[in-house]
């Protein structure tokens, strides 16, 4: 009978451990938790460190009713043991508040005690997220997770999400300042019963071009779509919420802001089929498209060169330097002057030692007539025609 019991224990215990492992709370590293903001609840595992005389510590979990054990240290045959001295309700308190409450309890038991609480493992709970997200559903989260993390877990925001009024439990959160400037006050921590609903915006605007973007707008890396480009600059396209009175600057910030390659001189609004030059202060309307240009980072070498193509712009390089990078002129390429076409469409002749701007197109002009070669080709053609004519007329 004992043998059967032992075998049963060996068979059952690993299974229990496996089941528990799937629900293991999130492990915490020292110094990661913000004690003034983390709110305790049933399932949190803590270490209670009591300093002074005596000096001891013990692990304790917040029980289902929200209570934490208060233990004292005693000795049995010179061996220190813990004895339960009471319970304090800590559920709903921050770790800092719970420390103060425990300190008051230990002041009743010891002279000048010190109490430190450390979170060992964070509890897990399930929250529902719905509305303008790519994968609505139920996700397992913890109090260490913020609103942005459940949005990412749900695949990121859908186009047209009203990020100014996301429902988090009974609260309404304006998530825009977090995307604009990383303001964590607008990206709160999650708690039980804080289901998330992201409504769709009443007014929207489409922005595309050279903008920084944001992970919550793009979604997890495996769901992101990279726009084809020959530029190193990031290109994105979003359908964003538009609030009354918002300008190009507001929308640009809402899309993650500008990058090193964003060209603020190439801002355009397409409205009712018309392309309008814009500035950061241009006020936008529902249905507008905002185009954000890119500062060119290449110089293009074309024409009679061995390796035509795009070459990275480097300050200080001259026309001949870029032509050399392209393998130099071919036998039919002119070497004494070249033709440059600027971004604005201006075209002019350039000398080999002239400077180059970003986005310039350098054309190596073809020599129209090389007498020693072309003369031979013409003579050969004429000879061939004569021989053919004589052959036909015989």
Description:
The chain is α+β, with helices and mostly antiparallel strands and 394 residues long. The protein has four domains: 26-122, no CATH class; 125-198, Outer membrane lipoprotein wza fold like; 204-294, Roll (Ubiquitin-like (UB roll)); 296-394, Roll (Outer membrane lipoprotein wza fold like). It contains eight helices and 21 strands. The strands form five sheets. Strands 8-7-11-9-10 form a five-stranded mixed β-sheet, covered by helices on one side. Strands 13-12-16-14-15 form a five-stranded mixed β-sheet, covered by helices on one side. A hairpin with a 4-residue loop joins strand 2 and strand 3. Mean pLDDT is 85; it is low at 1-25.
Radius of gyration using CA atoms only: 36 Å
The helix fraction, in percent, is: 10-25%
Mean pLDDT: 85
Helix/strand/pairing category: alpha+beta
| Spatial order of strands in the largest sheet | 8-7-11-9-10
Number of strands: 21
What is the correct CATH architecture of the largest domain?
Answer: Roll
The percentage of residues in β strands lies in 25-35%
């Amino acid at each position: 009978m004992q043998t059967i019991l032992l075998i049963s224990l060996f068979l059952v215990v690993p299974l229990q451990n496996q089941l528990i492992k799937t629900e293991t709370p999130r492990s915490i590293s020292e110094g990661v938790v913000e004690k003034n903001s983390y709110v305790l609840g049933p399932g949190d595992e803590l270490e209670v460190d009591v300093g002074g005389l005596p000096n001891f510590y013990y692990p304790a979990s917040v029980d289902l009713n929200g209570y934490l054990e208060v233990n004292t240290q005693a000795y049995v045959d010179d061996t220190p043991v813990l004895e339960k001295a009471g319970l304090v309700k800590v559920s709903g308190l921050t770790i800092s508040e719970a420390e103060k409450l425990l300190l008051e309890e230990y002041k009743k038991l010891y002279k000048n005690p010190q109490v430190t609480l450390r979170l060992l493992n964070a509890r897990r709970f399930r929250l529902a997220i719905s509305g303008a997200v790519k994968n609505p559903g139920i996700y397992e989260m913890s109090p260490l997770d913020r609103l942005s993390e459940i949005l990412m877990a749900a695949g990121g925001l859908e186009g047209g999400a009203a990020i100014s009024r996301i429902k988090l439990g009974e609260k309404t959160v304006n998530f825009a300042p977090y995307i604009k400037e990383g303001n964590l006050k607008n990206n709160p921590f999650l708690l039980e019963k804080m289901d998330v609903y992201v409504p769709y915006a009443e007014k929207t605007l489409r922005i595309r071009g050279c903008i920084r973007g944001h992970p919550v707008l793009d979604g997890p890396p495996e769901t992101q779509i990279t726009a084809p480009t020959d530029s190193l600059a990031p290109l994105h396209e979003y359908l964003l919420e538009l609030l009354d009175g918002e300008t190009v600057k507001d929308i640009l910030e809402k899309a993650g802001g500008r990058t090193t390659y964003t060209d603020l001189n190439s801002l355009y609004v397409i409205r009712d089929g018309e392309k309008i030059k814009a500035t950061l202060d241009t006020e936008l309307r529902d249905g507008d498209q905002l185009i954000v240009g890119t500062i060119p980072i290449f110089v293009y070498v074309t024409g009679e060169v061995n390796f035509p193509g795009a070459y990275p712009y480097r300050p200080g390089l001259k026309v001949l330097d870029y032509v050399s990078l392209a393998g130099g002129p071919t036998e039919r390429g002119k070497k004494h002057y070249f033709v440059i076409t600027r971004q604005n469409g201006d075209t002019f002749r350039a000398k080999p030692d002239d400077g180059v701007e970003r986005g310039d197109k350098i054309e190596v002009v073809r020599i129209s007539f090389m007498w020693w070669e072309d003369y031979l080709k013409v003579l050969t053609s004429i000879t061939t025609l004569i021989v053919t004519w004589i052959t036909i007329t015989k």
